[in-house]
Amino acid sequence: MEYLSQECYDALVAELNEMINVEVPRVKNAIAEARDKGDLSENFEYHAAKREQAKLFSRIRFKQRVLENARVMDTSHLKDDVVGLFRKVTMTNMKTNSQMTYTIVNTHEANLKEGKISIKSPVAEALTGKAVGDVVEVKVPSGILNLRIDAITVV
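Above: the chain sequence. Below: its structure as tokens.
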């Protein structure tokens, strides 16, 4: 089971509908046009369209499985006493004394440019279950970070 925000759930549904209603007919038309060009054994356009169709159907199946197992999280019942999914965490890097804020989200919503990190990232895994004032040691590819949790809010 995957917990999603309503925003992420709606985006996945829209993306799935776009693929089914727009992309599938486009690819089917490309296959039909390529088939009309003659010998299929040496028809590059036909084979390329078939590969694109296979990739598209694979992406559709993946999105359908995600949505089948998805639960939209009601964040109004979440508490802000510990770090967890759908919480915004403000923390300070103890070495550089720089402050940063990230929102912990599921893997489908993660976007570092928007300040959203995956619950499965090393930083989020280390912070999960910790409270304000805790100093957490995080192993990241570049070494070890010591982060102090300054604030937690539910998003």
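The mean pLDDT is 92.
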